[in-house]
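User: Hi! I'm a student and our assignment asks us to look at how structure tokens line up with a sequence. Could you show me two examples?

Assistant: Happy to help. In each example below, the sequence comes first and the structure tokens follow. Example one:
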Amino acid sequence: MLDARCSSLIGSDDVADWGPGELEALLTAGLLRPAGMANAVECECEAGGLEDVIFVDGAEGEGLRAYIVCREGSLGRVKVPLERLRRWRTDPAGLARYLAAQFDEGTRVDECVPERLWWLGRPIVGNKRCDLFLARGATWGDADEVFGAPGAATGCTRAVVLVPRQLPTGALFTPSTQVVCLGRVLSLGDGALRVDVSVVQDAMAAEQVAAPLGRQPVLVIDGVSVEYRNQRVMLSSLPLQLLKALAHKPGALLSHFELAEAVWGDAGTQYLDQLRGHVKTVNDAFIKAGSTTRLIRPKKGTGYLLDLGAEQVSCD
């Protein structure tokens, strides 16, 4: 369903044989969302032709009713329960939000390529971070062009890409990227959609840490000069000191007090409000330079980290 070229519609007849609670589980997870009622259904006569639905306002208190006219059989006018006309539409973006929440609650999902690629965050495995993506259409004819574009998954040193069904062949992503089928990660049963986080964690642990040969750091800090993907980033003194403190330990969580001491030489709590302001200043500067995400991220109110791998940062 998720790898269909257009958003798939699912009708009541399709879900009739599903297990108890499975439809509700997919709706709760966001993988499905309600769509408009069907305007045609299959007749129950032996011919089983597809007939247009006729909607009629019932008498007072009866509400809307629906009928079809059997044209290929001999049933004539046939009443259709409204429940049979219910439909739902698959929602890959909803699945992306659900998956992200299983790995890092509160993570903002970024749509890197419209309706094709979603960034789900950078979960920690051990003491290392890895970019996690959901890709749709990785086996389509345009996959090389879509997923090889700058700003997609190609700029990540360590990444795991989840795909709905078929694994792509060839070098679609970077050599350090692991591709995992969602069939190994998701399971539906007993009225619940479950995510086996360990499958992704195993893929992350097995992933080669070394970046491809010839890859340059995406963030370079040399004195007061800052470049992100070869774009100049303009920062004043205090935001620059904050960035440098984080860049010396990329991917590592630094507490508010450690950062305050690095910037002001004092770990006092009086600087916390200013610290938040400087974080926003740096993030805004990166976005202006072409970043699609906030590179400095808070972690449950305890501090901040620079959301890049050590191989992606060069700092004086």
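Example two works the same way, sequence first and then tokens:
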Amino acid sequence: MEITDSKEIEEILMQAQVLHLGFFDEEYPYVVPITYGYEEGRIYMHCATTGKKIDLIRRNPKVCFQAETDVAFNDAPKKTSGIALAYRSVIGFGTIRILEDNDEKREGIKVLAAHYNEKGVHVQRPDAMLRNVAILELTVDHMTGKQHD
């Protein structure tokens, strides 16, 4: 069943633990699982300052993302398999950028840290540390939700 309520879609993003991020690559799509934080139409992630993700972002910043929560197998005697998969999921599209400003990087890290553990929000992040990490900001263009009970 499609989820059309934007608040419910955002709730799924707030609860999910892993985001699957899809990039344009030459012959095949390239999808990676990544930790993230969501706030007001933006998704923040971190990664190494060099590598395939960074190269793909520089070539084409348009991405697709997907996350799911409430995943559970249930008995479904009428189905051939005898089981059904329950879940709530989000799929969306947007534009990603590599943050350069250290203050923006710190804010992105705070959103990401708060997604997993509020204590991480208060960790000091000096400029020297920020040079060694890429912080990515994905601006969501649109997203949809789906659930199966």
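Here is something you could point out in your write-up. The first helix runs from residue 6 to 15.
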